[in-house]
Specification:
Layout lengths: L2 H37 L5 H9 L3 E5 L5 E4 L1 H5 L3 E2 L2 E2 L2 H13 L3 E8 L8 E11 L3 E8 L1 H37 L4 H33 L7 E4 H11 L1 H6 L3 E6 L4 E4 L1 H17 L6 E9 L2 E8 L21 H7 L5 H11 L3 E6 L5 E8 L1 H7 L1
Parallel strand pairs: 9-11
Antiparallel strand pairs: 1-2, 1-7, 3-4, 5-6, 6-7, 8-10, 11-12, 12-14, 13-14
The structure holds adenosine-5'-diphosphate.
Length: about 375
Amino acid sequence: MDASWYVLLALLLGLTIGGGSAALLSIAAQRGRQVMAIATEPIPDGIAAMVDVLESAGIVFDGSNQVILASPGADALDLVDGRELRSREIMDAVRRVWRTGEAEVLDIAYRRGRIGVGTELQLRARVAPLGNRFMLVLVSDRTEELRLAGVRRDFVANVSHELKTPIGALTLLSEAIEAAAEDPVRVRAFSQRMQVEAERLGRMTKELIDLSRIQADDPLDDAERFSIAQVVDVAVDRNAVLAEAKRMVILPRVLDDAQVLGSEELVTMAVQNLITNAVQHSPAATHVGVGVRVVDEVVEIAVTDNGAGIAPEDHERVFERFYRIDPARSRVTGGTGLGLSIVKHVAISHGGEVRLWSHPGQGSTFTLRLPAAATRKEIA
Ligand code: ADP
């Protein structure tokens, strides 16, 4: 083959490759224009209005997976960053739904906040095509719902376990009475123990009802204004018989009186529980102090005893339901393990907290801290 043929062949080859590339480029450009058109396509009015009124977080994507609409709920959950969705798992689901056309529901754990120290939320996302040009993602926050379900499960398990003990004791004692029917001394002894167990059962039932009431209602919804000095008076008075039986003195010391907003009955119950504990966990003939002062518009009610004290590793746990440091001793005092969890819930539901200072052998100080009414009013 002479040189001119080579030139001709090279020319033809060049033309074919060039033409092919040009065709490919033109197809690609056309696709690109389509994507741009979708991305910049105006959002139909109905969709924008719908996303605006959504109770859960709503996000609409265009065909190029760019966020074109996000409801205020989506911002609150910190799901969107500009035109991007922060959650990779939801984004993967969006891509799958584009491919399959089948709506998906997925549950994910999501950390709010960019630096990864925020609380982990439990989210449920529903991904569904919106016509054939948009994708809708609805996200609901199930964190609180799941937490409450867990609390309820633990609670039911604990309650049934705790109720079994006195009920079992009552059954055994009644059998013992039947067997000792001819022996009045033993019958009397058994029936006295039956009374103790029955009282314990009664106290536990009452405290359980109190606790579930505090957890169900918000005392600030129907708040009354009351004096802490009055609360302390009543709580001390309700412990007078118990203290007398142990030759103990309760010394109230109200430095500042203050008003608190909430439920007087519940706050009285909390202070009363703290004083009862102080009396019950202290040796006979000692003192219990109840101090009230206002620090930075926070009312502090501190109950101090010279009792056994609490080791640091138990400081958190004593506030758990049914937790007792010494269950055997608590059987003697008739403790239910619910008193401090009631105190903690009363504090939280009034926007306050309980603090504990204690060391074994050095006594304890439980401080109930509640916002003074004036502060709450100013904030409102
Ligand atoms: P209880 O009905 O058993 O007193 P609480 O929830 O009130 O239940 O208290 C939980 C546990 O914390 C008690 O069993 C006891 O071991 C410990 N405790 C509470 N108050 C005091 C106190 N003032 N001094 C020492 N221990 C205490």
